[in-house]
Amino acid sequence: MKRQTANQTLKRLAKDLASHPFLLFLAFLGTIAQVGLSIYLPILIGQVIDQVLVAGSSPVFWQIFLQMILVVIGNTLVQWGNPLLYNRLIFSYTKDLRERIIHKLHRLPIAFVDRQGSGEMVSRVTTDIEQLAAGLTMIFNQFFIGVLMILVSILAMLQIHLLMTLLVLLLTPLSMVISRFIAKRSYHLFQKQTETRGIQTQLIEESLSQQTIIQSFNAQTEFIQRLHEANANYAGYSQSAIFYSSTVNPSTRFVNALIYALLAGVGAYRIMMGSTLTIGRLVTFLNYVQQYTKPFNDISSVLAELQSALACAERVYAVLESSEVSETGKEVLTSDQVKGAISFKHVSFGYNPEKILIKDLSINIPAGSKVAIVGPTGAGKSTLINLLMRFYPINSEDILLDGRSIYDYTRASLRQQFGMVLQETWLKQGTIHDNITFGNPDASREQVIAAAKAANADFFIQQLPQGYDTKLENAGESLSVGQAQLLTIARVFLAIPKILILDEATSSIDTRTEVLVQDAFAKLMKGRTSFIIAHRLSTIQDADLILVLVDGDIVEYGNHQELMARKGKYYQMQKAAAFSSE
Question: Containing domain of residue 257, as a range?
Answer without folding.
Answer: 6-320
